[in-house]
Design brief:
With 129 residues, the chain is mainly beta. It has 1 helix and 11 strands, in the order βββββββββαββ. The radius of gyration is 13 Å and the shape is globular. The mean pLDDT is 96.
Length: 129
């Protein structure tokens, strides 16, 4: 399984960004992707998870109402739309997924936000005040 991220950058307080995670090496329709962020000096935080087979999404309380997860099955890509960004959203964002598509339907309930088996390379999001 390979996960390739894109879309990070610098944005002002209140701005928006969309992160992408392209998935290969697994049956995309049955997979799941979690989004995590890492801030220096803090632990890794799970911010969102999408179960692609049933299009169910989960969100951390800190981003609920501002972030939206989605998927494009034709492009094997998962997106995280981030609106109303705040300086505290600054960090390196990673997409992560389970060992196989078999675990896809259970990943968001049983493993996110604590762990993933495969990781993207990470993309920096910086929100200036």
């Amino acid at each position: 399984v390979q996960l390739v991220e894109s879309g990070g950058g610098l944005v002002q307080d209140g701005g928006s960004l969309t992160l992408s995670c392209e998935v290969s090496g697994v049956t995309f329709d049955d997979y799941a992707i979690g989004w995590f962020r890492q801030v220096p000096g803090k632990g890794r935080e799970g911010v969102s998870c999408i179960s692609i087979s049933d299009n169910l999404t989960s969100y951390a309380d800190s981003v609920k109402g501002r972030f939206t997860g989605s998927s494009d099955n034709a492009k094997n890509t998962v997106y995280l739309r981030m609106n109303t960004l705040k300086p505290e959203d600054t960090g390196v964002y990673y997409c992560g997924g389970p060992q196989s598509a078999y675990s896809g339907p259970y990943f968001c309930q049983l493993f996110w936000p604590h762990e993933a088996d495969y990781w993207g390379q990470g993309t920096q999001v910086t929100v200036s005040s």
